[in-house]
Write a structure and sequence with these properties.
By secondary structure, the protein is α/β, with parallel strands linked by helices. The chain has a single domain, classed as Rossmann fold. Helices cover 41% and strands 15% of the residues. A seven-stranded parallel β-sheet has the order 3-2-1-4-5-6-7, sandwiched between helices. Helix 3 runs parallel beside helix 4. It is globular and about 45 Å long. Bound molecules: NADP nicotinamide-adenine-dinucleotide phosphate. NADP nicotinamide-adenine-dinucleotide phosphate binds next to helix 1, strand 2 and helix 4.
Length: 246
């Protein structure tokens, strides 16, 4: 992939593409000429999101838009997700592991289910999707995997044991995988955003959140990474609000 137009005709899976950062990333990718398949757990939310992607990218010389219901916590669903992308798009060049959840409470109140949902989605789900997608990427001569981590991975805080641990694990997973597959032409990176104005963890997007990053800021970072020339691998990007909440 080289030059400003290297995303034209590329085929991307965005997990958790039904809203927030994933939806903004799917829009940015298609605006740049890529075909996209978004996944999530709700067919209705995916249909709504797909219509928004088509509407937002109507003027682009854009590739296909597809959806697949998949819960990344289940390895067989991750496998079917990749098979669905191959069937609907024609292959996989790019995997954006964005699906994530946040369960925030003191450890004493954190349930076993909270812990499992967080680690199964944010860490194991990325493993399942990478494991399924890498053979498909190799068949197309290479690819790029971008994992959406968080600054919470490097700046842990009280009430964030499960979330911070899941994202710190994701950083280590990303770096190990990056070293493993780089000679196969597959680049692996992670993006660590600070606070983003989305519905994450039950947040309500609001005008008071103007200090936060927008989902489109993260999407722009993802697309900027994908435009790097083949010799260059920015393996970790930290993205902060320019001016933090006072
Ligand atoms: N917002 C922030 O402040 C912030 C900061 C740093 C990092 N991040 C990270 O950015 C990523 C996206 O967050 P966001 O703010 O855009 O959150 P969001 O608005 O809550 O969106 C999360 C997306 O993930 C999907 N999802 C959740 N669990 C899933 C599962 N098991 N399988 C498949 N899809 C699943 C959701 O769709 P369904 O519910 O329909 O499945 C939704 O599309 C997450 O990894 C998060 O940790 C967010």
């Amino acid at each position: 992939m080289t030059g400003a137009s290297q995303l034209v005709g590329r085929l991307a899976i965005v997990t958790g593409g039904s809203r927030g950062i994933g939806l903004a990333t799917a829009i940015a990718l298609r605006s740049a000429g890529a075909g996209v398949l978004i996944c999530g757990r709700s067919a209705d939310r995916l249909d709504t999101a797909a219509a928004r992607i088509v509407a937002a990218t109507a003027s682009a010389a854009a590739g296909p838009v597809a959806t697949a219901v998949a819960d990344v916590r289940h390895p067989e669903q991750a496998q079917r997700l990749v098979e669905s992308a191959v069937a609907q798009l024609g292959g996989v060049d790019i995997l954006i592991n964005n699906a994530g959840v946040g369960r925030f409470s003191p450890l004493a109140e954190l349930t076993i289910d909270d812990w499992r949902e967080t680690v199964d989605t944010n860490l194991s789900g990325v493993f399942y999707c990478c494991r399924a997608a890498i053979p498909a990427m190799k068949r197309r001569g290479g690819g790029w995997i971008i994992n959406v981590s968080s600054l919470a991975s490097t700046h842990p805080f009280a009430g964030g044991t499960a979330y911070c641990a899941s994202k710190a694990g994701l950083n280590a997973f990303t770096e190990a995988l990056m070293q493993e597959v780089r000679r196969d032409g597959i680049r692996v990176s992670c993006v660590l955003p600070g606070s983003v104005d989305t519905e994450f963890a039950g947040n309500e997007p609001s005008e008071d959140a103007g200090w936060k990053l927008a989902a489109s800021d993260v999407a722009q970072t993802v697309v900027d990474l994908l435009r790097h020339p083949p010799r260059s691998l920015p393996s970790r990007v930290e993205l902060r609000p320019s001016v933090p909440r006072s």
